[in-house]
Amino acid sequence: MTRFMTSTAARGLLAFAIGWISTAGSADAGGANLINGYRRYNASCSHCHGPDGVGSTFAPSLIERKFDVGTFRQVVLHGKASGASVMKGFAKDPNIAPYVDDIYAYLSARAEGAIGRGRPAK
Asked: pTM here?
């Protein structure tokens, strides 16, 4: 015997799933996901900016001073040149562009001392 969900039950299940997905992991007040920001940072940014945003001989620290979100988005998406140092933009990278706010939330939490080095706790 085949059983189907009523439309009311289906809407309730969908609302639950959407709510669960949007709040999974640690999130800041704006909804950006710290764990996802950590994952994205380590997959794409740490090669130049060092582990946990501390900087390297190749690129500056991203936690010594906090950037405003607008400047951060501009630089990450469109790049920046400063003397001989050049960072390319990532506006067309599907692994970075949609997640800039998550990366920003992770680095901001690091800069403020709200989270330490390593993967944020759930």
From this structure: 0.71
Residue appearing with tokens 């680095």: 107
The residues of the chain scoring below 50 in pLDDT are: 13-29
Give the count of alpha carbons within 13 A of 113, CB side only. Answer: 0
Do the beta carbons of residue 77 and residue 100 sit within 8 Å? yes
In a domain, 5, yes or no: no
Q: Nearest to residue 46, comparing CAs of 25, 62, 34, 33?
A: 62
Please report which residue ranges of the chain form alpha helices under DSSP H.
7-23, 34-44, 46-49, 69-78, 100-112
Is 8 domain-assigned?
no
Buried b (16+ CB within 10 A) or exposed e, 17-29: eeeeeeeebbbbe
pLDDT digits (tens, 9 = 90+) for 67-89: 899 999 999 999 999 888 889 99
Q: Is residue 1 part of a domain?
A: no
Cβ(58)–Cβ(45) below 8 Å: no
